[in-house]
Amino acid sequence: MGRLDVRNSAILLEKIKESLDRLNEKMEVFIEIQRQGGKPDFVVQDLPEALDVMTLLSLPDHLRKTAVAICKLGHATAEEVSEQTKRARAVESGYLNQLVLMGYLKKERKGRKAFFFVER
Amino acid sequence: MEAVGVGKIIAIHSYKGGTGKTLLTVNLAATYARKGKRVCVLDLDFRAPSLQSIFKLNGSEYWLNDYLNGACEINKVLVDYTPQCKCSGQMLVGLANPATEALRDMSSKDRKWEMRALGRLLSLKNTLLNDMELDYLLFDTSPGLQYSSINAIVSADVVLVISTIDASDVEGTRRMTHELYDLFEKKTGILMNKVPIEFLSTPVDRDSVCKRFENTHTLPVLKVIPCFCDVLRAGGTKIFARDDPEHPFTKHLDDIASKVDAF
Asked: In this complex, how many residue pairs, one in chain A and one in chain B, have their CB atoms less than 8 Å apart?
């Protein structure tokens, strides 16, 4: 195999991995929704909601822990949130995406990494 | 990414007003400063600011209100109280604006503003503890469930809740710690203050009072502080931990400081 073929294969594999990561994140959200009884325990908002302390208090325990962690970290990946909450990265990824759907968090991609943050 | 520092944020809170929260905050800060620590005290009681009168400061060009409004950085707010503190450490003070207009302004903030205020309070861990290398940041808060006090609690590493033996205070504190603090999984310690001296005449009595409140709150009671006439008589004008190191009240503060460190 030529050097060019190797490089193309590496690029292709990288793209496949990125697609799988995104697919995985979506699956985690669906799994979380299923776990909640088939429908989300929230209404998807058009406008971002304020993630103030009263909102934090109203969140279910599992989401509050994630939301408080992201408030402290400011701008973080699911991996960084999981280090703070001591829960699995995949679990945090599901919760973070759920908070994005609820309008409390924003998400942006930088390369292969997805960052979550509160838009203040 | 949050940097990891060794400093500690301590919020001092209570269910009711008049429990001695501000006096204990100021004296705890002075205790740490006397031990050579670098300390900052912030007045987050925007409804009834009182640190200015205790520290007898003229104020600064900027207030904590301005910092939370995003009008300035925290270093513009802080006043260096070290020379008056007569301590081997350092003491910085951040004051809340006591003007009536400011009190009205702070009580009319919306949820978006409160969310941004929480972000600015949380960022103090980086600016004051990590960048400025302070050892302790103490928040003096409004009593009860105010936005500003819950923001302070969420931002703190440790919360000290001051309660008197008043039945409504004890019950309110118990409810507040379980319905609020537990949700945020905060390290919380109770300080029973202004306890009549006759309840604490022997070590057995002291243990019994301590156990009684620990059973009520199901939280550690870090200290049972007697009601000292000298402290009441001083009317909040004297910083005992600075001016009277041998006073029993100061000794209690030394003990509280050690317990908070070990917490």
From this structure: 56
Using an 8 Å Cβ cutoff, are B39 and B66 in contact? no
Q: Assign residue A16 the CATH number of its domain.
A: 1.10.10.10
Nearest CA in chain A to B155: A72
Question: How far is the alpha carbon of A38 from chain B, nearest alpha carbon, in Å?
Answer: 26
**pLDDT tens-digit readout, B233-247:** 888 888 999 999 999
Domain that holds residue A101: 3-117
The CATH number given to B8-255 is 3.40.50.300
Nearest in space to B251 (alpha carbons), one of B34, B54, B92: B34
Residue A70 and residue A117 in contact, taking contact as beta carbons nearer than 8 Å: yes
Residue B116 to residue A120, Cβ atoms within 8 A: yes
Domain ranges of chain B: 8-255
Q: Give the phi and the psi of residue A13 in degrees, each rounded to 5.
A: -60, -40
ipTM score above 0.90: no
Say what the pLDDT of residue A62 is.
95
Are B180 and A57 within 8 A, CB to CB?
yes
- How many angstroms away from the CA of A24 is the closest CA of chain B? 24
The model carries a pTM of: 0.85
B114 CB within 8 Å of a chain A CB: yes
Nearest CA to B130 out of B42, B40, B43 is that of B40
